[in-house]
Amino acid sequence: MSEPRPTSTASAMPVADPMVPTPYEVVGRRQEGVDTVTLTLAPTGSALPTARPGQFFMLWAPGVGEVPISLGGTGSDGTIEETIRVVGAVSRALVGTAVGGTIGVRGPFGTAWDLEAASGRHVLFVAGGVGLVPLRPSIAEAVARADEFLGIGVVVGARTPADLLFGDLLADWGRSGVQVVTTVDRGDRAWHGHIGVVTEVLDLVDLDPAATTALVCGPEVMMRFTAQALEGLGVELSDVQLSLERNMKCAVGHCGHCQLGGGFVCLDGPVVSADRAAPLLRVRER
Ligand SMILES: Cc1cc2nc3c(=O)[nH]c(=O)nc-3n(C[C@H](O)[C@H](O)[C@H](O)COP(=O)(O)OP(=O)(O)OC[C@H]3O[C@@H](n4cnc5c(N)ncnc54)[C@H](O)[C@@H]3O)c2cc1C
Ligand code: FES
Q: pTM of the predicted model, to two decimals?
């Protein structure tokens, strides 16, 4: 990943240029699983505009690079939460930033989950691995507005029990009436839950497919099969929202790095409806 244009990270002036990172201080750091950490970031000067669930920021580890990371949560004090899984150099540098350290943030960018589309209907969230991160603030919002929905379901898949994110939150949501189903690819001695992929447990959630809106995030292959399975259960593809992942550089539609079909994931996505995404999911990343 390339680095953004160098700029003074000491400035407390409002930043109008979407290519210029705004300095945020790491004020909290929480280990979430084997290789995943949640950072709480506070603006050192002017805060960026509030992001909506589903949108993403570009996080810059100075001297290493910049990558897209979804909004994980927003604090009432202007802080943002970002949950990052270590897969390479930039994610490792971000996760390794100590409390008190500085990260550059640009955004928010992209499209948001359309939770309003689920109003008066069942809302089903389906997450694979770190895909639970962008869904988390939307699930929290749905739980807070539970009486607006016929029912709420959350289906989460992970590689192993240790990779399941936000266990406490999943338990809280379950206690508040959400139908929570978890499954893992490989169990361990302590695991007595489901083993298998999310598509195998979708039908455990009690819902009316014709009155269901689904929000799905995970690896592309998981989203493709989940959309197919939901369609098989009777959910319209136009009622399924997916969050596409492509490598990004500018995040503002200039560099063409995230081009997919006739559009750019950074502008037209990441959240798109499955009927629009279906042909795109067959396009390999460059
Ligand atoms: C819109 C959007 C939102 C995202 N939100 C989050 C988020 O909230 N939390 C989070 O942890 N990640 C998120 N990602 C993924 C994150 O941007 C990548 O993991 C990151 O760019 C990897 O950069 P790197 O330099 O650490 O690793 P790289 O050196 O770029 O990659 C290292 C290895 O990991 C592989 N890899 C890269 N990206 C992924 C990926 N997404 N999944 C699986 N393997 C990958 C590469 O092919 C390579 O083999 C998001 C991506 C997009 C496009
Ligand atoms: S990241 Fe540059 S066009 Fe989307």
A: 0.93
